[in-house]
Amino acid sequence: MTRYFLSRLRLAVITILGVSLIVFVTSRMSGDVTLLLLPQDASQAEIAAMQHQLGLDAPYYVQYYKFLVNVAHGDFGESLRYREPALGLIMSRLPATLELAFSAFILSTVVGLLLGILSARMRSSWLDYFSRIFSITAQSMPSFWVGIMLILVFAVELHWLPTSGAQGVQYLVLPVVTLALVPIASTLRITRSAMLETLDADYVKFLRVKGLHEQFIVWKHALRNALVPVIAISGLTLGFLIGGTVIVESVFAWPGLGNLMVESIFTRDYPVIQAGVSVTSIFLILLNLAVDLLFGVIDPRVRFG
Amino acid sequence: MATVVIRTQTPAERPLALHWRRVRRLPWLPVILLAPVVICGIFGSLLFPHDPTTIDLLAPRKPPAWMDGGSWQYVLGTDQFGRDLLSRLMEGARVALIVAISSVFLAALIGVTAGMVAGYYGGIIDNVIMRIADVVFAIPAILLIILIGGAVGGGFLTVLSSIVIVSWVLYARVVRGETLVLRERGFVALAKVANCSDTRILLRHILPNLMPTCIVLMTLQAGFALLIEAAITFIGLGIQPPATTWGLLISEGRPYMTTAWWIPTFAGLAITITVLGTNLLGDWLQEKFDPRRQQR
Amino acid sequence: MGNGDILLQVKDLKTYIHGRDGLRVTKAVDGVSFALRRGETLGIIGESGSGKTMTALSIMRILPSAARVVGGEILFNGENLLTKSAAEMRRLRGEKMSMILQDPMVSLDPLFTVGSQLAEPLRTHLRLGGAALAHRMTELMSAVSIPSPQQRLKQYPHQMSGGMLQRIVGAIAISCDPQLLIADEPTTALDPTVQAQFLDLLETLRDSKHLSVIVVTHDFGVAARLCDRVMVMYAGRIVEMGPIREIFEHPRHPYTKALLASIPDGTEFGTGRLKSIEGQPPDLAALPPGCPFAPRCPSVVPRCQRDYPPEFRVATEHAANCWQVSAS
């Protein structure tokens, strides 16, 4: 178990370094910062002086090293628009995003598991057909269009729910449903096929030989086995959800990280984009590490393997 | 211990039953769903009921023909500038086809090459390629696109490169896994004994065996590309107006959704139908190539 | 023989498998009748696809969803199992009748310790708990001769060898002292050295617990080792049935003869070349009229293509379904 964890940890560190490299490279692609800071008619000498001051004339590996040191101290530079540290800005918006993402995660896991198990149990029933049609359709719709359609139906036409904003639980419903649609579909598909495979397995046949209750077999043995692949993709699901908030937040004017990121594209506020991408990526990498650990807890083959 | 070895083989199916099953198992639904996009994409300009760029300021936001105030002149209504929505959707099909096909082929080219090389050579090359893939996988696709698009600005090339960058990883991972298995097979060893070059082994012996998987992935990714295009357009880094894409139609129609719901609705439906078609086709192909999965 | 001696009687059992399109019907078991006495061991022999496993699963009533018993009776202690409710069957399974599956590596749930899986039937059927349960589990582990049972019970299936797992499966199967034990290819998945050990164990268990056993196998060696009587199945039907010695020394059905001929020459542990039977087993969804073995039969007569041969008695307890037998 320790060796398993250490190898995962090593991979996580390498991946975080890789992310930092990508962020660094794209920041150098985003154009010359000096030109943004200096007046239009600055002379060649002034530009050179500024570059020297910012360390931009140093070799790239030195620049990258300095960038890493800064990032390690939480310094991503200042937001060009708000004139405050980019990281602070990101952190202040993070809770709203996590609220959305985790609500959607809980919804998609519960609904996806339940529909997946039931459609595997009642194979070829109307519920099974509904689940299959639902899951393939949900995975075929652009999420912001789904958001717009939901607003059109439930807010504009029926007046059941507010169109946008974040002043209470009722504001959470539409964004969470929009966000959860695809993960519900993928969880459902994986649960269903894992469950079908498990219910066909010899050990389930042997559990029946033992004369155990069918409900006991399904909910204790088959469910636990079907959970393994679902947990295996849960890191991926969370990544998808956190990425998805970018779109969903701006459709529903949800005051989170994603909304800030999209605004920053329009205002060319690159430090904020860098900080946002770094923070979410590192967060997700650590989350995946936790999922790997959880995997070891539920599956003895990993634990003792 | 005595063992009875008896040749067993699944009984041959009767030809008539086989034939019937073959006809019934053709992917009729995906074909029907995808036909409009392909036809409009190729012959679009010959079929337009109106020029998709002609502005009719006297008829902005006209509803579809079957609603009050609609007319059969504009079957699906008009957009905020009075352009015929149906014609714009057909024009969008052309762009969708270009985006999907070009991005899928580029991503497959890069991803399959990387995957084959990583799986075949192993060692440090494998490690480097797979760690790069890990990094790309670790950053949510849309954030990676913002990072790149934020740096270089929007446009067709941004869309194309964004889709390629986020989707080559999938090909690379799957292909690497299959190559690892294939390179242990007898025919690869034979080819090595026959002194074939590595390039020849990869292209002539391994690649053909990867084709079924690649075709399935490419079909599924074609639909995914359209979803990404729509998302990129929505965050302002996509193909810029006055071009017409389905994603752009939804974004442009969004401010008018309370007064002209048909603009975003039909554009979104066009995307949904097309992606649904590729998803169903991909599933069908997967079953066809791998009959063990038919039960699922 | 009195009726009280008979534990299980199967009469004209028919189990069909319906294809997914609903058109193909595979007659996996097609009119099988036999009886099993208390304390007796019966072998069911045939190649794969002959319906022997389907017969076993029909008796246990754990058929896959596509398969259905469409006719016949299965009398267990005089009661018809086919008319029992699911709940009644559940109470019988594991307690009065039990089964060992072919591959021990996949017979146990990989996510639970073997101990918890051994405890399940004891809790469900015998309502054991606490010290009594622990005592019984240790007892069962030593009955299947597993060393240091306390530690083994806490381990997971993937931490054990196939031979040990099959012994644990055996312990689970006999945990509630059943009257009937069905062993479906119990040694096929095991290493040759472990096979003999497990057969010894089965024999010991049978004798000490007074079990009636049905051994499903394709292996005459296994049958010779354990069985009092064997029945040979082909294409879902019984083609020959009789005491093991009779069948070995005077096989009457050409299929039985072919099976016996395919055993390597010399001793039963010999390593001689294996012979295979010419031709292929028939399509059970499209059986021709007449004897299904006719296309592969070396001594076929015109009548075989036309009529299915009835059972011809050749000696006490020995019968075969073949026109050749009637002629002699």
Instruction: Return Rg of chain A in Å.
Output: 24 Å
* Multimerization state: heterotrimer
Range of helix content of chain A: over 70%
Q: State the CATH architecture of chain C.
A: 3-Layer(aba) Sandwich
Number of strands of chain C: 12
Q: State the end-to-end CA separation of chain A.
A: 8 Å
Number of strand elements of chain A: 0
The CATH C-level name of chain C is: Alpha Beta
CATH topology of the domain at 86-268 in chain A: MetI-like fold
| Helix-strand topology string of chain A | HHHHHHHHHHHHH
Low-confidence stretches of chain C: 266-274
User: Main interface pair?
Assistant: A-B, 56 and 45 residues
In terms of structural class, how would the helical and strand content of chain C be classed? alpha/beta
Provide the gyration radius of chain C in Å. Answer: 21 Å
Give a quick account of the main beta sheet of chain A: strands, pairing sense, barrel closure. Answer: none
What is the CATH first-level class name of the domain at 86-268 in chain A? Mainly Alpha
What is the rounded distance between the termini of chain C? 29 Å
Can you say what the CATH homologous superfamily of the domain at 86-268 in chain A is?
MetI-like
Précis, in short:
The complex is a heterotrimer of chains A (305), B (296) and C (328). Chain B is built from ten helices and no strands.
Written overview of the protein:
The complex is a heterotrimer of chains A (305), B (296) and C (328). Chain A has helices spanning 2-29, 33-37, 44-54, 60-72, 86-121, 126-138, 143-157, 169-200, 202-209, 214-251, 257-266, 270-298, 300-304. Chain A is built from 13 helices and no strands. Chain A is an all-alpha fold. Chain A is flat. In chain A, α5 runs parallel beside α12 and α8 runs antiparallel to α10. By secondary structure, chain B is mainly α. In chain B, 69% of the residues lie in helices and 0% in strands. Chain B is built from 10 helices and no strands. Chain C has one domain: P-loop containing nucleotide triphosphate hydrolases (Rossmann fold), CATH 3.40.50. Helix content of chain C is 33%, strand content 24%. In chain C, the strands form 2 sheets. An 8-stranded mixed beta sheet of chain C has the order 6-7-8-3-9-10-12-11, with helices on both faces. In chain C, strands 2-1-4-5 form a 4-stranded antiparallel beta sheet. In chain C, a hairpin with a 2-residue loop joins β11 (312-315) and β12 (318-320). The model of chain C is unreliable at 266-274 (pLDDT under 50). Chain A binds chain C through residues 123, 200-203, 205-214, 221, 224-225, 228, 298-301, 304-305, and chain C through 60, 62, 64-65, 86, 90-95, 98-99, 101-103, 106-112, 120-121, 124-125, 156, 158-159, 169, 172-173.
